[in-house]
């Protein structure tokens, strides 16, 4: 039975028909304009949408109910979604931040599937840290600025053996101050979730299979944070570590006045709390042994900085 390897206007029209949606409803479902849908359908097999739209169409078909899939197969002569997942390559999108030396990866602007309902949302291009901010990273910030150290450090030194573990016992304001010092920002909810799930809206960073062994959560019994580069098998489509488990991550997004969103679960969390689409928030002053952060940067800003350094 044939698979949809590349979507053209012909398959797009078949999918809309199979889903029994109007042009407006179908466009809203995909998160694209009605004009695009009309153009694709009018040109049939002579048009091939951009890769980001290919991905969103793959997701729409993959997440359709069995009856819709059956109608789609009938309309396309037996075609169905390919079982292979397309992974966004990190390649040349990986850089070292010129001020901190941290490894960051570019996430190109595109639509992604947001939240438990997989609502299509557009996010502009940005870079995000591949690793959580570690104790060693944070120590540089404390030494440079005189900022208060985490409460479990003694004499300005983090606990022995934890240099490459994520910094914890930091409030949202601590995290935001570090990001500002580093010439970055905290990620928004949308930026963080897209980096974790990819454009196809995978349930977990590594795919749709619930595999607690791929991350540091309560079920594994580790009982402490782990090194920020520990769980390679659990990386996201962009090669980003610890987007499930290890520590909750402070985000820039405000939920209500004085409260900020958190994502990712922690070593103290049940696995089902670590799902990237799940909502969580806390008061900006909250400070705990299972909460840390990573940073992001708008693509234009970082690329300008990289160019100036060169």
From TrEMBL:
<dbReference type="Pfam" id="PF01381">
    <property type="entry name" value="HTH_3"/>
</dbReference>
<dbReference type="InterPro" id="IPR001387">
    <property type="entry name" value="Cro/C1-type_HTH"/>
</dbReference>
<dbReference type="InterPro" id="IPR051043">
    <property type="entry name" value="Sulfatase_Mod_Factor_Kinase"/>
</dbReference>
<dbReference type="InterPro" id="IPR016187">
    <property type="entry name" value="CTDL_fold"/>
</dbReference>
<dbReference type="InterPro" id="IPR010982">
    <property type="entry name" value="Lambda_DNA-bd_dom_sf"/>
</dbReference>
<feature type="domain" description="HTH cro/C1-type">
    <location>
        <begin position="12"/>
        <end position="41"/>
    </location>
</feature>
<dbReference type="GO" id="GO:0003677">
    <property type="term" value="F:DNA binding"/>
</dbReference>
<dbReference type="InterPro" id="IPR042095">
    <property type="entry name" value="SUMF_sf"/>
</dbReference>
<dbReference type="Pfam" id="PF03781">
    <property type="entry name" value="FGE-sulfatase"/>
</dbReference>
<protein>
    <submittedName>
        <fullName>Formylglycine-generating enzyme required for sulfatase activity</fullName>
    </submittedName>
</protein>
<dbReference type="GO" id="GO:0120147">
    <property type="term" value="F:formylglycine-generating oxidase activity"/>
</dbReference>
<dbReference type="InterPro" id="IPR005532">
    <property type="entry name" value="SUMF_dom"/>
</dbReference>
């Amino acid at each position: 039975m044939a698979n949809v390897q590349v979507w053209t206007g012909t398959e797009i029209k078949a999918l809309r028909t199979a889903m029994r949606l109007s042009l407006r409803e179908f466009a809203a479902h995909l998160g694209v304009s009605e004009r695009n849908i009309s153009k694709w359908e009018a040109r049939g097999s002579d048009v091939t949408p951009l890769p980001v739209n290919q991905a969103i169409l793959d997701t729409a078909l993959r997440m359709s109910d069995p009856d819709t899939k059956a109608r789609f197969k009938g309309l396309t002569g037996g075609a169905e979604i390919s079982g292979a997942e397309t992974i966004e390559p990190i390649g040349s999108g990986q850089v070292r931040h010129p001020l901190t030396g941290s490894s960051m990866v570019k996430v190109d602007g595109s639509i992604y599937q947001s939240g438990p309902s997989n609502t299509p949302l557009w996010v502009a291009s940005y870079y995000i840290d591949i690793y959580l901010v570690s104790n060693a990273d944070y120590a540089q910030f404390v030494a440079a600025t005189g900022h208060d150290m985490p409460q479990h450090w003694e004499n300005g030194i983090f606990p022995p053996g934890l240099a490459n573990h994520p910094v914890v016992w930091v409030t949202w304001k601590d995290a935001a101050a570090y990001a500002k010092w580093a010439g970055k920002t905290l990620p928004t909810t949308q930026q963080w979730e897209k980096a974790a799930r990819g454009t196809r809206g995978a349930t977990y960073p590594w795919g749709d299979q619930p595999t607690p062994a791929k991350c540091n959560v309560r079920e594994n019994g580790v009982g402490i944070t782990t090194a920020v580069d520990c769980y390679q098998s659990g990386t996201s489509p962009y090669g980003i570590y610890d987007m499930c488990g290890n520590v909750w991550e402070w985000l820039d997004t405000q939920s209500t006045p004085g409260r900020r969103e958190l994502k990712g679960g922690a070593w103290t969390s049940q696995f089902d709390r670590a799902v990237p689409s799940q909502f969580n928030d806390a008061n900006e002053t909250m400070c705990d042994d299972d909460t840390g952060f990573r940073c992001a940067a708008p693509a234009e800003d970082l690329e300008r900085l990289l160019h100036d350094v060169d």
